[in-house]
Amino acid sequence: MMVSIVVMLAGCAPTPEPTPTPTAAFASEEEAFAAAEETYRAYTDALNAVDLDDPATFEPVFDLTSGDFEAADRQTLSELHAEKYAFTGQMTVVRFKGISSHPSFEQVEASVCVDVSGSDVVDESGNSVTSPDRPDMNPLRVTFVLSDGRLRVDRADRDPGTACSG
Q: Which residues is 121 bridged to in the sheet?
């Protein structure tokens, strides 16, 4: 009888919760690259939609970024707003190529070409404040990090090794 009570009690003892094994956010590197491209195109669209007179329009940009990159965007947009500048035209992503990814996709790197020839920053009189030496194509090496289950732009550096023509 005592043995059956011990067995019954043992059967009723709480079992430890299984520890979930982390799963990759993406099934493949191609999927991670596609998500990174979607994120960068959404980031460019968000920048194109910014109205420097309305800081509420900055939020979609910040929602797609992280870390120092987000902090730099916050500072830049705040400064442009304070100067009463305006964005005109549109930037366009003309090339996106995945370069590498962390094995569990916490970080993804890509080569991106952005055509900025159709965009400008102007003062209250409509005069351009953009450097006349700015090239029409902006070659970038962009790093994305996984945060809250989705990729965010974490870094973008000019990449003279990226060919944006052709």
A: 87
Rg (CA), the chain: 24
- What's the rounded Cα separation, in Å, for the pair 139 and 158? 6
Query: Which residue in this structure is represented by tokens 């953009």?
Result: 130
Note the pTM of the prediction, 2 decimals: 0.84
State how far the alpha carbon of 66 is from the alpha carbons of 51, 87, 93, 98, in Å.
21, 23, 20, 19
Cβ 153 vs Cβ 65: under 8 Å = yes
pLDDT tens per residue, range 54-96:
999 999 999 999 999 999 999 999 999 999 999 999 999 999 9
Closest-CA residue to 63 (of 53, 73, 54)? 73
Element containing residue 153 per DSSP (H, E): strand 150-158
| CA 156 – CA 165 distance, rounded (Å) | 19
